[in-house]
Design brief:
Blueprint (H helix, E strand, L loop, with lengths): L5 H8 L7 H8 L1 E5 L12 E8 L2 E8 L5 H6 L7 H16 L4 E7 L6 H5 L2 H12 L6 E10 H5 L6 E5 L3 E3 L3 H8 L6 H8 L3 H6 L5 E3 L10 H19 L4 H13 L2
Parallel strand pairs: 3-4, 4-5, 5-6, 5-7, 6-8
Antiparallel strand pairs: 1-2, 2-3
Helix pairs in contact: 4-6, 8-9
């Protein structure tokens, strides 16, 4: 079998039929109740979130949601959140802290939406506030990158105690096309950029950015969704058990050290 390149991983991460956040949420958790709105401007369908049970344990679950076809992607803004999406996520995370519920996030976005309206409503501030607030939440946070994890759009819900990636997911400062446009002044060099960005799960595990890689079947997670979902569930349960042994002070100190060492 030929070697899978970084660009191959990018293409696998972007496959329309790849399982999305709601697919994993509905399979892994019981009694999921979705909450809507940021209590300020509106509801952003690019981010879903709410409360659920994990083996009878109350948890808060948040995910960036793409569609699987054009109609769904239009409804979900192609998985690109606007400020109200990040504010909704933060509202749910603060609620989780109040009721001492672990937080699980699923990351899958090409980036935060760059439209004028989003900028006018404080896109940069919303992302920065989420990063700041997540760094000090006094409950366990587990972040799972299931597809694309690009830019601050991903990081805004990815400041956690444990960060795990699916084998064919990517995690980077921006898309390979954007990287090529800036560095090479030529977006057609995206394949070359993908190799140099070190955005694959293996690269990031080697660099100490993520904690674990969850294997996928050949061709992507959609080819054996149940196994991938079961492996994610197993990892979440194991991680929560480990993190709940820590005091609040130890939890926050470890999270701080984790990101300072990156």
């Amino acid at each position: 079998m030929s070697k899978i390149t970084a660009w191959d991983r990018v293409m696998l991460a972007r496959k329309p039929e790849r399982p999305k956040s709601l697919d994993y949420i509905k399979y892994i958790f019981d009694d999921f109740i979705e909450f809507h709105g940021d209590r300020n401007f509106g509801d952003d369908k690019a981010i879903v979130g709410g409360i659920a049970r994990l083996e009878n344990m109350p948890v808060t679950v948040i995910g960036e949601q793409k569609g699987k076809n054009v109609k769904e992607n239009m409804e979900r803004n192609f998985g690109m959140p606007e400020p109200e999406g990040y504010r909704k996520a933060l509202r749910l995370m603060k609620q989780a802290e109040k009721f001492k519920r672990p937080i699980i996030t699923f990351i899958d976005t090409p980036g935060a939406y760059p439209g004028m309206g989003a900028e006018e409503r404080g896109q940069g501030e919303a992302i920065a506030k989420n990063i700041m607030e997540m760094s000090s939440l006094k409950v366990p946070i587990i972040c799972i990158i299931i597809g694309e994890g690009s830019s601050g759009g991903a990081l805004a819900i990815a400041v956690g105690d444990k960060i795990v990636m699916l084998e064919n997911a990517i995690y980077s400062i921006l898309s390979p096309e954007g990287f090529a446009s800036i560095l090479y002044k030529d977006s057609s060099k995206a394949k070359e950029a993908a190799e140099n960005m070190k955005a694959t799960a293996k690269d990031l595990k080697d660099l100490g950015i993520i904690d674990k890689i969850i294997k996928e079947p050949e061709g992507g997670a959609q080819n054996d969704f149940e196994k991938v979902a079961k492996d994610i569930k197993k990892y979440i349960l194991k991680s929560i058990k480990e993190l709940e042994k820590l005091s609040e002070k130890e939890l926050l100190e470890n999270r701080y050290k984790k990101f300072r060492n990156m």
